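Lab notebook page, bench 4
Experiment: in silico fold of construct C2
Operator: M.H.
Input chain length: 373 residues
Purpose: comparison with the prior construct
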Amino acid sequence: MQYALIALKVLAFAFGAYVVYATGMSAIVTFVLPRAAQTRISRMVFIAVRNLLDLVAPPSRDYHERDRLFAMQAPLSLVLLPVVWLLLILGAFTLMYWAIVGDLREAFITSGSSMLTLGFARPDRLSTTALSFAQAAMGLGLVALLISYLPTIYAGFSRRETLVALLEALAGSPPTPATLLARTHRIGYTDRLDELWRAWEVWFADIEESHTSLSAVVFFRSPDPDRSWVTAAGCVLDTAALLTSTVDRPRSPEAQLCIRAGFVALRRITDFFGYPHNDEPTPDDPIAVTREEFDAVCEELATAGLPLLADRDQCWRDFKGWRVNYDTVLRFLAGVTTAPPHPWSGDRAIGFKSPPFWMAWRLTQTRHRHRQS
């Protein structure tokens, strides 16, 4: 019986130490590691919040009602994350104290006093005192880590939203490729569109970095409910694709580079969520835009006075050849972020159903194997 108790205490101490390690690594990977990586703890928190919001505001509800609730998704997840970390630390150190002192009540009081740095429960052994110091430092460090990285998160959000807001002046609300091209043609801005493509090429590179290393930024919604970084990206990419494939003007290398920067960024962000997509699509692969919708936009551009290429069939094939590179990932991100139902993006978003939060462990392992393969 005595040996069984000793073995149980050894297992409890080892399990507690592992939970402390996993919690610390979760904090480091979530906020410090400058690359795309998932942790099971963070993923469980975000999935649990998403499940709650989907339960309160299912997809059948009005978009603006869902937008008001989903605006809390990222802030609520970030607030809950350190709470979950601290609870895990509290439980893990309780097990470790119990393994040493043998009294569960005393172990819990010592753990709580150490983590919250209250100091009313002072351990009387050197080993438990060392654990108390480590727990106090870790508890303060986790909270400080979140607080220190909040400005970085909001700085990334602010950079993203600047161009999204500016797009409304050119592309309207909701932003559409036809409006953007017609308006720039009407005000004589068409020859300066290369400046727009360069700005958005930098924007795509920026969101690829910020939205994978700090994934919470993906779920921060625009101040205006009818704006979205996903639908804005779709509008810019479709405009560049239409300009390159359909408008009768010299080919723009800047527009083509913008498209490539765009679909690479959207693919990297989609990879972070583990959604399967084809990295090497062919021009014959299906897209969500129909030929009738394409022809309607061409008629709208012709009415606005833009010169179009004569071979409409070839224009359609060329447009498909560009759109197929980002069609699936754009619609997936529109679904996962609950984007507004804007034409050619949010209105045909791929339905997203968040898995139960307890599946986070298995899903993270699956995504890790998928990225390695």
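Observations: Residues 360-373 have pLDDT under 50 and may be disordered. The two ends are 48 Å apart (CA to CA).
Next step: discuss at group meeting.
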